[in-house]
Design goal:
The protein is an alpha/beta fold and 386 residues long. The chain contains eleven helices and 13 strands. The strands form three sheets. A seven-stranded mixed sheet has the order 1-9-8-5-4-2-3, sandwiched between helices. Helix 3 packs across helix 6. The longest helix has 19 residues.
């Protein structure tokens, strides 16, 4: 057994990030300032969108996207239960009702063939989740949206770097796309998020809403040439990003391809080592995901494996290997149980009962991954019962 604990996830922070943060501290700009504006511009260019609005979380971006689209009380929003609570919380925060669609049994992504049957005259939007770093079937989703005049708010918390049919998620979005820069994400600023859109009205309203509803140019009122005069255009929120976060984001964005290459190499080892083990199934990659962000590496522990999913988690922990589960379905949580109604979410619940996320991050090394896979394979030769 290794004496070193292999955590489930670690951020990839180098001297470059540290220098950028120190330079920002020395500049005197701690709140929203020039670094945030630069990060927005470079991120928009990276994904191929016209506008990017930096926020303090992906949750904020998802919330603002729905508000800017006019979603509110009495409306219904279609989404998946195989996601983090934020995807659903933001629907509830605007006063709308979440409507859950079951997942595809192979990928864990929303089953696009079951979306249209959930559309009613109250449906206002769809929130597809690019789960684990794969792309949802956007052509089908946008076809449904066009047919019923629905707004699309893509949850891309896992999908920085992901490409759908050769284009990055966020490329010329018809609705809005929200990203997460939380500490565990492929691009990490500790906390942080970004909303991108090609819709100027959504972008302009988002910029106002994230600073208490303050007029859009008021962020620089303390700088030379700025004005003390501002207006509150509508009651808003304190959702803006600030320059220390943006300083991290700019450096991480510069290094993103390098970090992604490392993730891809580690994912290849997992696939090579685990794909033929009886009782383990790997999350399948769909045909339209031309680049996978590999935010998560998910395995399914079926009844043919000697241990249950929970027993495998315990065994790996005993051998200094951290793991996680993504996710406990939202509809199984106390706060959301009433929204399941008569929905058939059997694939979601079955998926949850078997899934396990193995360590995957750019500072993990290949020997660590081989150590993990060796211990998983050793269970087949062990008589240990949990």
């Amino acid at each position: 057994m290794t004496e070193k604990f292999i955590p489930y996830c670690l951020p990839d922070i180098t001297d470059a990030e540290i220098k950028e943060v120190v330079d920002t501290l020395e500049s005197g700009w701690l709140a929203k300032g020039p670094k945030t504006i630069e990060f927005e511009e470079k991120f928009a260019e990276y994904v191929g969108a016209k506008y990017a609005v930096a926020m303090n979380s992906c949750t904020a971006a998802l919330h603002i996207a729905l508000i800017a689209a006019g979603v509110g009380p009495g409306d219904e929003v279609i989404t998946t239960s195989m996601t983090f609570a934020a995807s659903v919380n933001t629907i509830l925060h605007v006063g709308a009702t979440p409507v859950f669609v079951d997942i595809d049994a192979d990928t864990g992504l929303i089953d696009v063939n079951k979306i249209e049957e959930k559309v009613t005259d109250k449906t206002k939007a769809i929130v597809p989740v690019h789960y684990a770093g794969q792309a949802c079937d956007l052509d089908t989703i946008y076809k449904i949206a066009d047919k019923y005049n629905l707004f699309i708010s893509e949850d891309a918390a896992h999908a920085i770097y992901t490409e759908y049919k050769g284009k990055r998620i966020g490329y010329k979005p018809q609705g809005a796309v929200s990203y997460s820069f939380y500490a565990t994400k492929n691009l990490a600023t500790g906390e942080g998020g970004m909303l991108v859109t090609d819709n100027k009205e959504i972008a302009d309203r988002a910029r106002v809403l994230i600073t208490h509803g303050m007029s859009k140019n008021a962020w620089n009122r303390y700088a030379k040439g700025g004005s003390w005069m501002y207006d509150i255009e509508e009651p808003g929120f304190k959702y803006n990003m600030f320059d220390l976060q943006a300083a991290l984001g700019l450096t991480q964005l510069d290094r993103l391809d390098e970090m992604q290459y490392k993730r891809e190499e580690l994912a290849k080892i997992y696939i090579e080592e685990l794909s033929e083990i009886k009782g383990l199934e790997l999350q399948k990659v769909n045909n339209h995901t031309s680049k996978h962000a590999w935010h998560l590496f998910i395995i399914r522990v079926t009844e043919d494996f000697p241990l249950t999913r929970d027993q495998l988690i315990e065994y790996l922990a005993e051998n200094n290997i951290g793991t996680s589960v993504h996710f406990i379905p939202v509809h199984m949580m106390t706060a959301y149980s009433s929204y399941k109604k008569n929905a058939n979410l059997s694939e979601t619940e079955g998926w949850f009962s078997e899934i396990l996320s193995l360590p995957l991050y750019s500072t993990l090394n290949k020997n660590d991954v081989r150590y993990i896979t060796k211990h998983i394979k050793s269970i087949l030769k062990s008589s240990k019962v949990y």
